[in-house]
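Submission checklist for the structure archive. All mandatory fields must be present; incomplete records are returned to the submitter.

[x] Identifier: Signal recognition particle receptor FtsY
[x] Organism: Breznakia blatticola
[x] Residue count: 374
[x] Sequence attached
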Amino acid sequence: MGFLDKLRKKFANEQQDVESTETVENEVEPVEDTTTADKEVIEQEVVQTQSEEQQESVVPEIVQSDRSDANRYLSGLSKTKVSFTQKLKNLARGFKGVDSDFLEELMIVLLEADLGIDTAEKLIKQVEKRSDKEKATTMKEVNDILFEEMQTLYNSFEDAPFIENADGPTVILMVGVNGSGKTTTTAKLANMFKEDGKSVMVTAADTFRAGAVDQLKRWADRIGVDCVEGRAQADPASVIVDGARFAKEHNNDIMIADTAGRLQNKVNLMNELKKIHKVIDKEIPGQPAAVWLVIDATTGQNGISQAKEFMGATNVTGVILTKLDGSAKGGIVLAIRNMLGLPVKYVGLGEGVDDLRPFDIDTFLYGIMGDIDA
């Protein structure tokens, strides 16, 4: 059984389990939905402007979904899937074997999916080598080889584990440029930890973007977690210190700190990020446990450049890809992994509070290729 066939079987079984659960739940008397009015109030109160810095300002309705992760990925990755699979199907129509012409066309498909030259070339070499060794004569066999190599590439790196602090709050530092969805992701991440039974608080240290502090405060109120905030234009490091002290005093398990969006060419802001890292370690030794870089998936290869700059300023330990549902270039996942060695920790697959999902390479590959009929 090929790689894609195994994934189809695995996720088909998951879907059956979800449908069985939904059948039972549908027999329960429905409860009146009172969230719509709340949503309207929150959205009216959130500060919005026309600038790029406030694209993430809407606080959506909080609705928990019964969809399996497989279905979330299929839905959220639909743009990538449609684009990618259609191009592979076009290749299949004229497939005469894995020759130089075919490999050149496959290379173009990978580049258009935003894998980048280095990553695409690495995969092409492996597809050529294995196709020859395994005598691949059909497009289905080539597809299996391609995605097995994608899986192998992603899993070829060793990641430092996320270890929670046994002696105090675990600190997660959120970094990223303005417009990446960082503040919204901070709140969604807090909600995820809260749903997992953790005592969570957030620190609104993005004091430079108009409306950012207010936005995170409203998110915090909505999901039911504490928020330490700083006044406009306050020193972000001082707000971080206040947040760390609050987390210690209130015995919080998790502190998630939202920082000001930083542009690659602003050295002073990068230096500020280093300062924040130092004050966290002073207040809570050994922290932060994680520094997660939020990247807008729709920015494509520019996200790689952003990551390199942040890696030069602090110890980035993982990436959160937002707006993956709005991009047809999901290959950025593999480019980040191959070029930077960073793991993708979570992906944004929609606007709902529970549409931030832990990243899984098998589910991702199934999401972009699970139903191809090559």
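[x] Structure attached
Curator remark: The longest strand covers residues 290-296. Residues 18-55, 62-66 have pLDDT under 50 and may be disordered.
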